[in-house]
Fold this sequence. Notes:
With 274 residues, this protein is α/β, with parallel strands linked by helices. The protein has nine helices and twelve strands.
Amino acid sequence: xxxxxxxxxxxxxxxxxxxxxxxxxxxxxxxxxxxxxxxxxxxxxxxxxxxxxxxxxxxxxxxxxxxxxxxxxxxxxxxxxxxxxxxxxxxxxxxxxxxxxxxxxxxxxxxxxxxxxxxxxxxxxxxxxxxxxxxxxxxxxxxxxxxxxxxxxxxxxxxxxxxxxxxxxxxxxxxxxxxxxxxxxxxxxxxxxxxxxxxxxxxxxxxxxxxxxxxxxxxxxxxxxxxxxxxxxxxxxxxxxxxxxxxxxxxxxxxxxxxxxxxxxxxxxxxxxx
Length: 274
Ligand SMILES: Nc1ncnc2c1ncn2[C@@H]1O[C@H](COP(=O)(O)OP(=O)(O)OP(=O)(O)O)[C@@H](O)[C@H]1O
C-alpha cells in the first residue's frame, strides 16, 4: 500500500502521547489490556478493529475520560491523571461517537460550547469567540447552518456540527470516534481531507480500512481488547492481519488510474458468521 496521497506525510518529530501497559475495564470485565504504543506529534493515526475490539474505550482513555485499571497515558511526559480537567480540555479534544446534541440550541451556540475551556470563569462569548465558531463551521462546510436549530440537522450534519465543536476547542491533539459515520461519500472524503490538513495530532477510530489507508500516516489494529499491530498502512494492513482481526479475506489490487494499492474484501467461508 502506498503512502497517503492527499498530502505529503507530516513530519512527526516526537511523541505526543505515550501509552504503556494500558488496561481498561467495563464493570469487572477487562476490555482493553497490555496496550503499548506512542502517538507521534503531528501524525494522523487510525484505530481500526472489529465491533467491540476496544477502539472507543482506547480513545476515551487517551482523552483522560476513561480511567485505566493498569498502565498509564502520558501527554508530553505528564500522566493524564495529573492534569486538571480544564488543562486537559485545552490540550485534547475528544469527539465521541453518539453524543446527544442539546436540542434547544442553534448550531452556532452548540459549537460555541467547544470554547468553554478557553473562557475565564463566568465569561460570555465575544467577537473572537464568534469568529472561532464560524471558522470551525466553515471548516466542515456548515457555515450556512450557524443559526439553524440543532434538532433540525440531518444525521450527517450532526456529525459535522460535532466535529466543528471539537475544532472550535482549538487543541493540538484531537481524538475522533468514527467521524465519518452518517456522511455521504463526498463528505467522508472532504472531512478526512480537512482533518488531514489540520496539521494537528489526530487519532481517529474508523471502520473503512481503505479510507484509513488513504488518509492516515499509520494504522493501529485492535482485536479483542489488544493491540494486534501498529505501523504504516502497508505494514499494518496485510492480508494476514486483516484475516486475524476481521476474519475476512483481503486482496490487494492496483487502481488502474492512480496506481495506488487498494484492498478488495471477500468472506472467508471457513469462518463462522459472528
Ligand atoms: N459501559 C459499558 N458497560 C459494559 N461493557 C462495555 C461498556 N462500554 C464498552 N463495553 C464493552 O467493552 C468492549 C469494547 O467496547 P468499545 O466500545 O470500546 O469497542 P469498539 O471497538 O469501539 O466497538 P464499535 O466498533 O462497535 O464501536 C465491548 O465488548 C463492549 O461491549
